[in-house]
Amino acid sequence: MQKEPLNLLFIGFGNVGRKLASILSVEKAGYSGLTGFSPRVIGIITRRHGALVNYDGLKLRDVLAFYQNNAGFNHKHPDFTEMDAKTAVNKLPYNVLVELSTLSIADRGEPARSYIQSALEQGKHVVSANKGPLAFSYLDLKLLADRNDCMLLHEATVMDGTPVFNLARTALYGCQITRVSGILTSTTNYILTAMEGGVSFDQALHQIQVMGIAEADPTYDIDGWDSAAKICILANAFLSGCLTPLQIPRQGIREISGRDIETNSGQGKKLKLIGSAWMENNRAAARVAVESIPIDHPFANIRGTGSVLQIETDLMSPLIIAHMSPGLNDTAFGVINDLLTISREFQRD
Amino acid sequence: MQKEPLNLLFIGFGNVGRKLASILSVEKAGYSGLTGFSPRVIGIITRRHGALVNYDGLKLRDVLAFYQNNAGFNHKHPDFTEMDAKTAVNKLPYNVLVELSTLSIADRGEPARSYIQSALEQGKHVVSANKGPLAFSYLDLKLLADRNDCMLLHEATVMDGTPVFNLARTALYGCQITRVSGILTSTTNYILTAMEGGVSFDQALHQIQVMGIAEADPTYDIDGWDSAAKICILANAFLSGCLTPLQIPRQGIREISGRDIETNSGQGKKLKLIGSAWMENNRAAARVAVESIPIDHPFANIRGTGSVLQIETDLMSPLIIAHMSPGLNDTAFGVINDLLTISREFQRD
Fold first, then answer.
1. What are the residue numbers of the active site of B?
2. DSSP-based helix, strand, coil % in chain B, nearest 5
3. Contact: A33, B303; criterion CB under 8 Å
4. Residue A34: its chain B contacts at CB < 8 A?
5. % of residues, chain B, pLDDT over 90
6. Residue numbers in A near B172 (CB within 8 A)
7. Helical segments of chain B, H only
8. Cβ pair B333:A175 closer than 8 A
9. Residue B221 in contact with residue B214, Cβ under 8 Å?
10. How far is B90 from chain A (nearest CA, A)?
């Protein structure tokens, strides 16, 4: 059906990248919705764990086993290369860049932002699970993509694979979104929920690190940077904003004490870290703040690692979309759904 | 941009039809997402309130005023006609049938089902806000639509305009849906919520009838028929089922007493009327039942006229989509979103 197969270049091969590779190879037969979807991965470039390139497509099943056995890629793999990401993005014959490296606030989304820009300048599609480039340069990158008739998709950047951007792009077509708000960071919501049960902040943080959900350096989550990046992407994508995480009011949960939780509980409320974006004087505004949520509000029952987004529009009454227990599969699905969207567009040409 | 304008034929002109006409005329300027969307309504056929036809497009603003002043259409309107729905569906030069009449369980979705079938047989697109035809004949109608290369869309049939089918069609592409469950009927959820506050069943029913949300004859809602029709549409659309509301286990809320509510409340639970559909031995199964929902479950905080649907898939962890206070606007938006989808497909031809 496809005129041209999807040739993917992965930048990054962390948890999400490896899960994605696994779904597309080892696990694929178990998912009937993926029948007939066979993109080739022609390159995987990591910053500290080596790189592989094979124009005919890497054998993902073997690649995963090799990575696990060797804690990365090295010269023993037949497809091993010394090529760096910048060269790969500029030289390899991929048609979709899949950006899977991690958020960098200090570097304002770099170097991923530059890679995405280079790919789009070459007329290649981009799928990003990395929040940074979208949080810092959404508008520039989107304009570049539109100018070059490429797709720039990023479903996995907010609420894992929950179809937030997809929902807005198709299902809410005809509505103008006026406000979005929600619980966007799993780590902080897990800690606040655990603290309701009497666990200390430090214990709760330790628990979620052991679960492998919080980063080894959980600062971005705890201090609200993760939520700030996500709400900026939402503000920029839905409200035509031009905000960056550095510009918006931001609060983390580091200062929340067990007593704060108890006091709120006594008043029938729960503390939640909420990202919000709205229109103010015809411009997008956003913030991240700890808010007291009444116990009968739909956000109150989003516990643990769950996340939720309320979408307000001009035409409809508020919609809520929630994800109860997102995991790696969900983030990987966000990328896959974007790839399927590109694949369908390819078929249509 | 459109090769051919959308020429709509409305069957029915109740609350939803009039709201839809109002959004497309009187209110349109206020909704920037509808800029450039100018379908023509060439006929409005009602069962008991007369009919209008004008091949150049009815003047909806005047039509609404006339309807209000005359409690329907009559020979004083220049576009008045004695044409019945069957004739209109077979003879008029519309390209989208908009079926807006009400659910009939006793007649198994007729006569709307036949109108939709006739339209599809002529190669015309169909948008239905009427649950009956989809609840009783989803598979036949869908196959007919596919065979004739027509669209059969019905976003407004479940959860008003909340993009349930749209979500599944695009945003969950690549996943297989394995189970759906939720609170699907506003009237029953309103009554159960009011009873939690000590109001009697009869008082609560009276309240919601005064609000104009329950039908004058609320039997379909109270006895679970409305939920049954909706869960059948979901089962048939998402799980390739072939179920009708007459075939599935169904419970209503007529027998629920204040004491039942209190007993559950004492156990940290709330009673909710839940529609569920799932796969069982490779076949779709469904039911409607009153269920005890733990107070910290996301369904528990869906109060009053709110509705909610949990979608389980093979690839992702469960998603929840909720609507807190749906109104007529939302149902009308469901129809408009379907019309926009057809309009975009037209542009693509």
1. 230
2. 40, 20, 40
3. no
4. 174
5. 84
6. 163, 337
7. 15-23, 60-70, 85-91, 112-121, 131-147, 164-166, 186-196, 201-210, 219-222, 225-238, 258-266, 328-348
8. yes
9. yes
10. 30
Q: ipTM, 2 decimals?
A: 0.91
Nearest chain A alpha carbon to B176: A33
pLDDT < 50 regions, chain A: 1-2, 349
Residue B313, min C-alpha distance to chain A (Å): 10
- Nearest partner of B44 among B91, B112, B97, B114, judged by Cα: B97
To 5 degrees, how large is the angle CA B343–CA A126–CA B163?
35
- Integer Cα distance of A37 and A25 in angstroms: 11
Q: Inter-chain contact A333–B33, Cβ cutoff 8 Å?
A: no
User: How far from chain centre, in Å, is Cα A227?
Assistant: 11
Q: What is the mean pLDDT of residues B275-288?
A: 96
Among the listed residues A305, A347, A299, the one whose alpha carbon sits nearest the alpha carbon of residue A330: A305
Q: Tell whether B10 is within 8 A of chain A (Cβ).
A: no
| The pLDDT of residue B1 is above 60 | no
pLDDT at B349 over 90: no
Q: Does A327 touch chain B (CB under 8 A)?
A: yes
Amino acid occupying residue A26:
V
CA–CA separation, B285 and B275 (whole Å) = 11
Please name the residue that has the structure tokens 């430090």.
A202
Of A79, A307, A330, which Cα lies nearest the Cα of A181?
A307
Cα gap B184→B305, rounded to integer Å: 10
The structure tokens listed for A205 are 């943080």
C-alpha distances (whole Å) from B49 to each of B61, B84, B112, B214 are: 18, 11, 17, 21
Best of B37, B165, B176, B301 to disrupt the A interface by mutation (most A CBs within 10 Å)?
B301
Residue B11 has pLDDT above 90, yes or no: yes
Residue B3 has pLDDT above 70, yes or no: no
Average pLDDT over chain B reads 93
φ and ψ at residue B123, rounded to 5 degrees: 80, 25
This prediction has a pTM of 0.93
